[in-house]
Specification:
The protein is an alpha/beta fold and 297 residues long. The chain folds into two domains: 92 residues, no CATH class; 140 residues, 2-Layer Sandwich (Nucleotidyltransferase, domain 5), CATH 3.30.420.10. Helix content is 39%, strand content 16%. It contains eight helices and eight strands. The strands form two sheets. Strands 3, 4, 5, 6, 7 and 8 form a six-stranded mixed β-sheet that branches. α2 crosses α8, α4 packs parallel to α8 and α5 packs parallel to α6. It starts with 6 loop residues before the first strand and ends in a 15-residue tail after the last helix. This is DDE transposase. It comes from Embleya hyalina. One of its GO terms (biological process) is DNA transposition.
Length: 297
């Protein structure tokens, strides 16, 4: 017995049509329709001088980025029926550098909040950090050791709303104090979500973050843990950021930081959350080992 993948028709820019079996990470027609206008508009603004439209459809480029993020494979190990590293990395880097990945992410975030009957931008965010190991070859200048968690690598900081949606992300060396990461997150929150007036943080953040928040017009509250509680005890509203970290770790490219540039690490977070939100908006669930598999008889 073997698992079957549903055939998917792929239309290339040159007009050719090919068929391949779809991967679980592929965008459905409904999911692609959510982000296609942004990608198509970008493509029209970046036409080749020679008029060549490229050998691969933009949908397939996005599928390749999502496949790699979900499986964690190296660039050279992308499947042969997806665009190769040369094409996929070109667009990944271009969209990272000009912020297109964030535009796509923000478009879906606003739609998810609207579906939950909330305003586009929140008034409250939750901040937290997560230290992760790095892969061999990652520049030592962007890494360090987190003395509290005893993790050598990088520190990933998130600011999320009460739905667990990402408002801001920062990636720094793991040796960076939570205060510095928190200040950077608050700056990004103030820049992208001017409606935020309150932020919740844990005891790892100190008075420097509170003081910086007051300068930005954001009331930062340090949520203290009850000393009588043992083990992991979810804190009201603050648990959302822990949930988001748990969701992101399902994308194996984020389990360990493989990126040479911290900007690429942040882009991986945006693409992972984009995939999560696209599934939510279309009512799709991520396949798990518990799901029954279609088999050949």
């Amino acid at each position: 017995m073997r698992n079957l993948r549903v055939p998917q028709t792929v239309v290339c820019w040159g007009g050719g049509v090919s068929e391949r079996k779809s991967y679980p990470s592929d965008l459905s027609d409904g999911q692609w329709s959510l982000i296609e206008p942004v990608i198509t508009a970008w493509k029209h603004r970046h036409r080749s001088v020679s008029g060549h439209q490229g050998a691969y459809a933009m949908r397939e480029i996005v599928n390749a980025i999502l496949y790699q993020g979900r499986t964690g494979c190296q660039w050279a190990y992308l499947p042969h029926d997806l665009p190769p590293k040369s094409a996929t990395y070109y667009y990944f880097a271009a969209w990272r550098d000009d912020g297109t990945d964030q535009v796509v992410h923000e478009l879906l975030r606003c739609q998810v909040r609207e579906r939950a009957r909330r305003l586009e931008d929140p008034t409250l965010v939750v901040l937290d950090t997560q230290s992760v190991h790095v892969a061999a070859g990652v520049p030592s200048s962007t890494t360090g050791r987190d003395p509290a968690k005893r993790v050598p690598g990088r520190k990933r900081g998130l600011a999320v709303d009460v739905l667990g949606l990402i408002i801001a992300v920062t990636v720094v060396a793991a040796s960076t104090h939570d205060n510095a990461a928190g200040i950077a997150l608050l700056d990004r929150v103030a820049e992208h979500a001017t409606t935020v007036c309150k932020a919740l943080v844990d005891q790892g953040f100190k008075n420097a973050v509170v003081a910086h928040g007051s300068l930005l017009g954001i009331d930062v509250e340090i949520v203290e843990r009850n000393p009588q509680e043992t083990g992991f005890v979810p804190q009201r509203k603050r648990w959302r950021v822990e949930q988001t970290y748990g969701i992101l770790i399902l994308h194996r490219r984020l389990v360990r930081d493989y990126e040479h540039r911290t900007a690429s690490s942040a882009s991986r977070v945006h693409w992972a959350m984009t995939q999560v939100m696209a599934r939510r908006l279309t009512g799709a669930n991520t396949p798990t080992w518990r799901d029954p598999q279609t088999v050949a008889v």
